[in-house]
Specification:
alpha+beta, NADH Oxidase, four-stranded antiparallel β-sheet, 4 strands, binds flavin mononucleotide
Length: 251
């Protein structure tokens, strides 16, 4: 038994600064193949990945995300939930599948499939020595992303991923995660709120110390502060309409 992948996974941190060394098409192809071998709900294969190579398109996507590494990277991928191919099968098989891909379950299936594929790609890329960062920021304006990438009905851009060789001064490091016992429960959900409160308080201190050390005292926020700040700013409330416009969530 090898613990190689365990150690690889434990080393992960998001990389947001890359050398200007583009990945070759051959490397990208291998990454996509590795991604495709992720498990896929009912063998439905509901993901399409778009490699964005056109500089103008990358710039337009950067406008949506507001993040420079959407342009400055070795390669840019966009993960798309894709039932367009199923709509072709639907026509050819004269079946009636539309309710399935317009349903909330269809949306969940597509979301899970794309995420599993992406994480296979992320781990494979990290094993090859590349860094990655996911880009949920592309959902700041789903309509615009659909326009830029010419996405048809029954497709939805879920997130992007920037990849590349980490810059020499890229100074990220693995961020501490919640304690194991907080996220792993056995047989029943442990809803002892006092225990949870204590675990979160201890974790807050760990995260604050981590930022303090990493930024020489410029940042000292706790995990709870970060989460409260993020989750109290109402974000992307148009999502339901954007999903419906793409043919999803119409049940
Ligand atoms: C679906 C998803 C979307 C994300 N979107 C962004 C993003 O738009 N911009 C960004 O800088 N990081 C993004 N991230 C990275 C997270 O901020 C990062 O994974 C988290 O802070 C933990 O840090 P780590 O990956 O270095 O361990 C995203 C991560 C995921 C899983």
């Amino acid at each position: 038994m090898s613990e190689y992948v365990y150690h690889l996974a434990k080393k992960h941190h998001s990389v947001r600064k890359f050398k200007s060394e583009p990945l070759t098409r051959e490397t990208v192809g291998k990454l996509i193949e590795a991604g495709q071998m992720a498990s896929t709900s009912s063998y439905l294969q509901t993901t399409t990945v778009i490699g964005v190579e056109d500089e103008a398109k990358k710039l337009a996507l950067k406008e949506v995300s507001g993040q420079p590494y959407v342009v400055d990277n070795g390669y840019l991928l966009v993960f798309v939930i894709d039932y367009n191919r199923h709509s072709i099968v639907n026509e050819q098989q004269s079946s009636d599948m539309t309710t399935s891909f317009q349903s909330v379950e269809g949306l969940l299936v597509g979301t899970v499939d794309a995420s599993l594929m992406a994480q296979n790609i992320a781990l494979t890329a990290e094993d090859m020595g590349y860094g990655i960062v996911y880009l949920g920021s592309l959902r700041n304006d789903v309509e615009r992303v659909r326009e830029i990438l010419d996405l048809p009905e029954y497709t939805f851009p879920l997130f992007g991923m920037a990849l590349g060789v980490p810059a020499d001064d890229e100074n990220g490091s693995p961020k501490p995660r919640l304690p194991l016992e907080h996220v792993f429960h056995v047989d029943t959900y442990n809803n002892d709120r006092e225990t949870h409160r204590q675990q979160l308080a201890d974790y807050d201190q760990i995260v604050s110390d981590y930022y303090n050390e990493r930024t020489q005292g410029k940042r000292t926020e706790t995990w709870s502060e970060q989460v409260a700040n993020f989750m109290s700013s109402k974000q992307r409330l148009e999502m339901d309409q954007w999903l419906k416009n793409a043919g999803f969530n119409k049940e």
